[in-house]
Amino acid sequence: MTDIVRGLPSTHGDSFQLNTTTLIRHAARTFPEQQIVYRTPDGGWDRYTYADAYARIQQAANVLTGLGVGPADVVGILDWNSKRHFELYWAIPGTAAVMLQMNLRLAPEDLGYVTTHSGASVVLVDESLLPAARELAPHAPGVRTWVVMSDRPSSEIDPGLPNAVFFEDLMAEASAEYDWPVIDETSAYSACYTTGTTGRPKGVYYSHRGIYLHTMAQAAAVKMGSDDTVMLITPMFHGQSWGLPQSAVYSQAKVVLPGRYAAEDTSVLVDAMIAEQVTVANGAPAIFGPMLAYLETLDEAPDLSRARLLCGATEPPLSMMRGFFELTGADVIHAYGATETTPFVTVNAGIKPTLTGLSDDQRWDLKRCQGLPVNGIEVRIVDAAGADLPHDGVAEGELLIRGPWITERYHDLDDAPGERFIDGFWRSGDVATIYPNGYLKVVDRLKDVVKSGGEWISSIDMENAVVAHPRVAEAAVIGVAHPKWQERPVVLLATVDGDDVPLSEIHDLLATRFAKWQLPDTVIRVDALPRTSVGKLDKKVMRVEYADLYQVVR
Amino acid sequence: MTDIVRGLPSTHGDSFQLNTTTLIRHAARTFPEQQIVYRTPDGGWDRYTYADAYARIQQAANVLTGLGVGPADVVGILDWNSKRHFELYWAIPGTAAVMLQMNLRLAPEDLGYVTTHSGASVVLVDESLLPAARELAPHAPGVRTWVVMSDRPSSEIDPGLPNAVFFEDLMAEASAEYDWPVIDETSAYSACYTTGTTGRPKGVYYSHRGIYLHTMAQAAAVKMGSDDTVMLITPMFHGQSWGLPQSAVYSQAKVVLPGRYAAEDTSVLVDAMIAEQVTVANGAPAIFGPMLAYLETLDEAPDLSRARLLCGATEPPLSMMRGFFELTGADVIHAYGATETTPFVTVNAGIKPTLTGLSDDQRWDLKRCQGLPVNGIEVRIVDAAGADLPHDGVAEGELLIRGPWITERYHDLDDAPGERFIDGFWRSGDVATIYPNGYLKVVDRLKDVVKSGGEWISSIDMENAVVAHPRVAEAAVIGVAHPKWQERPVVLLATVDGDDVPLSEIHDLLATRFAKWQLPDTVIRVDALPRTSVGKLDKKVMRVEYADLYQVVR
């Protein structure tokens, strides 16, 4: 730890604690008439105001208190991006309890592990997710109360859960005034568990302070204001929808909550975007890609030229970014982060005004990279020995990240901290280059880099080249152990027509970009690539399956 | 004090200290090529980059350390909005010392009081201000080192001050690398003394934390970004130019420093605004008014439609706001605050998108008010007994303000705190109304309200009505003690032609807006109204001069 130097005392209100619930209170006071638009369980849309929401948030806090929830208790939510989920975002942390973000896509055993590890004693569950809750319950014996949320009368619902109560029944009797405690700003606000492909989920516990600062930084970086309409597409149960619920409220923007939607419900999102004139939305390429495809089927493309689509999780394909812009004027903004980083680390919001001499292609190429570090965040790249590498746009090293909203340990976990943290920096596990002008480009996952003959081959670069083949639907490149070269790259791909792609055609695609020794020796066609619960390529599974391809003697 | 409740510990980097100097370091790393344009002492213009500035900032920190400056020391600056002043903004607080903002317009005795009360041991002074420094020196015996700043060789300068050294000579020998300490964020960053019209100047000591949060809030509220060009017109020695130097750097905007300019140098500011395509600037109506007058003399009005002109200190006249917009497209944004508030409390940046039914006149009328409270700031209005008043747009009460960048006491001052603070809120001394939709309107200074026959008359409303007279150049309304009515309003005015304005014409102007009992009985023509060192009407002087007008027996 660095020593902290103390200067003269200030006369500022430095004891003022940064508490997230003050954000919704402020918004309700200064913009009571601002709208929150939400999708109902029957697929319709409804709306209410910040003032209405704030009244219900205070009711919800009273409901929680009535259920015995107090400071340092953990309260879980099993819900879509719904109106009640939005209300609980403020109510739970406002009581000094911790909001546990419960990932619907985890297996019951894993979600049970998360629920038990966090010590959650109360879980609120949307009626539509009661089957999942019933599967979860045996794996989460510490939950003493299940709270069922529904628009329907409780008399019509059979929870099938032990100790179940009904949220709206309790709300109907709760006061709409709640005297928020002043919470030590370093207290946990919410907990989100990583869904990493290695080992058990690890707990990241965000503080009120970290969330508050992240909120301000995001609002400033995206230039959000009360003339924005913000649609939350990224699940609110995963990395708090990338902090957008909070920055939307900070900015007093109109909020659009699409509720429950499946991957095939792309039209729901697009139609809402057009109807509500959405100007800010977030999502992974796996969401925005189909949205673009749907937009292309419309008779007339809408004008979305005010829209900034925050796109993360994986690098957005260039064709998708250009497609949105050319069809609708919408700006796809690549942002980078992780569960451990709240998540804003870098954002590529607009090309620097000083970069005036770029060609159109160069500008698009620049927009693909992760962008500039957000103010408040410190980044470094280091080699395998932990030594700093220059920001010259050439050196590639592991990306280390530090800042007030970056995690510096995992909750209640005793594993070797050095594997994940160095000098207060979080080890991202990503390999990156930083250019002299500050732009950061992630080259690969450290564990996905193919180490062949003492050199590194970027699996992502090779994947991007392979998917350019017209018949390739998706591709992954993994390093497979090899008796002579340590590892060799192997291409796994799925095709649109189900036919094989010859190795020679892959070599043709890669020839201009890769050295001859880097070219793969093997191409394997599969029906679909394995993915994790959050839709990322699951290379751990692939590596296990093809570990013995080159018959290394272990 | 409210009890602070503690929840679960978080895993965030909550021990990360908000230190202002990290903002310029971040900007220099992510936007090294961004420009800082500055006016030189000979009236020319020059420019360098964030990277250049950051190197010199590190040199300056080494110079200060070499002069024995360390944590909790106080270092004063006597300078215009210059390049070196900008550098010292980061260098002094970066060493954990306190930057004392020295108001050039104070009398030597008052500035001596400020210097001595703060305990400043080192003062940096621009060569052009050596005469002022020499006048100050006898009143500031605690200053052990005077540092002379000039572009000229030191051999050509006779400081005429005890223990004088030359800044650029020391800079030339200083390393451009400095290992910034991590500073406890509640430490004082800078000190600014109020220039209130009552009593001695009072010390407001801003913290690193408060400044950092204010910076983020301002950048978000004004939607500043690296595509902005920010000109600092408000003096950097008064309320740190309203926080704009910091928010400009936070946003990585281009910065324009106009250096030394006199009131008659309006063309310098306007020409720079056009040449550098300024998009954000700050200043009082006393600056922007003459700038508009100069713009009106140009053959062709420039397009300033991206410009947001932050206007404070007093309410900007409607004619000036409309004039800027109609001539150039520039948006004059009324912002409200004080030395004690860093200063952003409210800002009127754009009319709420929900207010769609307003007429053109209603929109302009709304733009005149102080606007909406900035996120993070809490406001209340209270009656004389301290009871909360409703936000109904009718009730008028004293405005109380609280938040992380609002002062909660004065530095080293033992006067009765209740006179200036209540329950952690700062008493602004302003009388305000808050509308149900959140907009705040300052009606008057509490001490300037005319209390007549048990009722209040707003002196500001009356002044605004009087200046609508075509021959009135400026006007003030004061309450003068009266044997029957407690106080009666008296109008003081200066005319453009030097001739009197009959009382009947004033009554005609006021008739539609004021009740008959509110109409003044006396109009007094003066050559010019007395003003304070920061250009505000000095009603204290006026009240003293006309105290016996109605011959109250005391």
Automatic annotation (TrEMBL), chains A, B:
Species of origin: Gordonia neofelifaecis NRRL B-59395
Q: Which family does it belong to?
A: Belongs to the ATP-dependent AMP-binding enzyme family.
Domain AMP-dependent synthetase/ligase intervals:
25-410
**Pfam families in the record:** AMP-binding (PF00501), AMP-binding_C (PF13193)
Can you give the residue ranges of the AMP-binding enzyme C-terminal domain? 462-536
Keyword check for Nucleotide-binding? no
Q: Which GO terms describe its biological process?
A: fatty acid metabolic process
Question: Do you know which Gene3D superfamilies this protein is assigned to?
Answer: 3.30.300.30, N-terminal domain of ligase-like
Q: What is the lineage of its organism?
A: Bacteria, Bacillati, Actinomycetota, Actinomycetes, Mycobacteriales
- Keywords recorded for this protein, A-Z: Fatty acid metabolism, Ligase, Lipid metabolism
Q: Name one GO molecular function term.
A: ligase activity
Under InterPro entries, the record lists: AMP-bd_C (IPR025110), AMP-bd_C_sf (IPR045851), AMP-dep_synth/lig_dom (IPR000873), ANL_N_sf (IPR042099)
- What is the protein's name according to its record? Fatty-acid--CoA ligase
Q: Does the keyword NAD apply?
A: no
